[in-house]
Design brief:
Elements (H helix, E strand, L loop, with lengths): L1 H26 L17 H15 L3 H13 L31 H14 L6 H15 L22 H4 L7 H9 L5 H7 L7 E3 L17 H10 L12 E3 L11 H7 L6 H5 L7 H9 L1 H16 L22
Helix pairs in contact: 2-4, 2-5, 3-5, 8-13, 10-12, 12-13
Length: 331
Amino acid sequence: MATNKHHRSSSLLLGFLLLTFLFLHFCSGKSELQLNYYSENCPKAEEIIQEEVTKLYYKHGNTAVSWLRNLFHDCIVKSCDASLLLESANGIQSEKASTRSFGMRNFKYIDTIKEALESACPMTVSCADVVALSARDGVVLLGGPRVEMKTGRKDSRESHVTELESFIPNHNDSITSILSAFESVGIDAEGTVAILGAHSVGRVHCVNIVNRLYPAVDPTLGPNFAEYLKGRCPTPDPDPTAVAYSRSDRGTPMVLDNMYYKNILNHKGLLVIDQQLAYHPNTSPFIQKMAASNSYFHHQFSKALLILSENNPLTGDQGEIRRDCRYINSN
């Protein structure tokens, strides 16, 4: 009799544990990032984003670079949660106002993408997923690799502006600081060197360059490249509002390729951090390897970008899905 009770109790316990497991499994099925998250409630979501990103690229080519920078600035600061997109309103101070966000632009076109999604699937696709997928599709348009990204992120109800500077590295920081910042989100030295290859595309304002030119030229700059930079940035105190820019890669400025690494080896690193990569023992071997192989660079870039895109996302009941990416929902 006691044996029967023991078996019955064991069976009940096992049954309870199984039901608990199944309940947690099915109830949390949409609480984590997953591929094709919108397959049921907005099956064309990723297609809509890709179409809008492509249309914008052919009208305004630099948008693709903006999407890539958006992902970095949003995801490295606490969470991939579209906090970057919030405007200063209703007690919120925008991250866009930070000095770390200097030079960022094309935010209005995020609204274009979001409007297309809202038209097809109201209040379904998060702004955080728009940030991630627009970067993914922008990278492809820039000649980079396609990265299969999971979706299901939710949007933050707050700005992280007060903490932003402690997360986003400054271009004048030491290699140790840069490596530490990326390591905090799970990206190792090899991945850090790869993700910095994003500097291959776009341009940099003279405000961030002149410290290498005046009063004396940084000795790690090649003489010809220094002369080019002085031509682009002729004064030590450029107007931050002026159109005064220089490109890191003059040969393929809108292609995400390994010219960035070849330029560094030829003393043509645009920012202090770029050139320092060639000299630090933890990064210099990867500079050599990526300069020698574009496919290796793309492979490592894909891995690092994916890790960054999945940094501490809000999922499930966390956060919200904003109707307008610029403002938290009023209800």
